[in-house]
Amino acid sequence: MARRSKDWEEGLAEDLRDPAFAREFLLGAIDEGVPLQLALGKVVRAMGVKEFAAKVKMASPNVLRAIVLRHNPTQETLNRLLKPFQLRLSLAPIAKPRSRSAA
């Protein structure tokens, strides 16, 4: 069982190096309620922290700090980390359920 899990993790890490796949992974993770920092951390580590840091023009320790759950990165920092995936943070209204009225 452990071998299958390891193979799956290696395959996922390889897939996450593709920016289009990583984008869909991040969107899916958020839809499932996974914390953004956790999902982004998986993607950044799969791509390589140094390589990703160079891509977003940030120091590697700052990238690592931003993806750790105990830290609280700014919206600007998160947007900078999301930019290679053509994503950014935004707000959207929650649709109100339609009320049924007795006629």
Report on this structure.
- The protein is mainly alpha-helical and 103 residues long.
- The protein is built from 6 helices and no strands.
- The mean pLDDT is 88.
Give me the secondary-structure category. mainly alpha
Oligomerization status of the protein chains:
single chain
Reading the helices and strands in chain order gives HHHHHH
Q: What's the end-to-end separation, in Å?
A: 59 Å
Provide a short characterization of the protein structure.
The chain has 103 residues and is mainly α. The chain is built from six helices and no strands.
Topology, pairings included?
Layout lengths: L1 H14 L3 H13 L4 H12 L1 H8 L3 H7 L8 H8 L21
Helix pairs in contact: 2-3, 4-5
Label this structure with key terms.
single chain, 103 residues, mainly alpha, 6 helices
